[in-house]
Amino acid sequence: MPSQQNIRDPIVYAKYFMPDSHWTWYVLEFDGKETFFGYVDGDYQELGYFSLSELESIRGPLGLKVERDVYWKPKPLSEVKKEISKAQKITLTSYRFLFEDFFKGNLSAYLFPAT
């Protein structure tokens, strides 16, 4: 992958994710051997370097390995960041409703849904 150092909105060529965790790695550059440069969405978001061997050695809380998203289509980093932001808003909204129901005493609807 060519360097995108001076490109305003670089292309994300690949996505790796941990199926049993919230960690995701978006690849902007790869040296062809071991080292990636990309955008990491984990406990917080940052641009940085990560290695293939690192991804291969990581296990999630359920023991699952990092996987490559084989359906990923390259797209600009700005689009990826918008998708992450939208997903976070949906998750926060879902938690807000769950906690509101819990404190109102309506949690039984979640625990024992009508059949």
Q: In terms of topology, how is this protein built?
A:
Layout: E1 11-12, E2 14-17, E3 24-30, E4 35-41, E5 45-51, H1 52-57, E6 67-68, E7 75-76, H2 77-104, H3 108-111
Antiparallel strand pairs: 1-7, 2-3, 2-6, 3-4, 4-5
Structure description:
The protein is of the alpha+beta class and 115 residues long. The chain has one domain (11-111). Helices cover 33% and strands 27% of the residues. The protein is built from 3 helices and 7 strands. The strands form 2 sheets. The chain has a 5-stranded antiparallel sheet. Strands 1-7 form a two-stranded antiparallel sheet. Strand 2 (14-17) and strand 3 (24-30) form a beta hairpin. The protein is globular, with a radius of gyration of 18 Å. The mean pLDDT is 83.
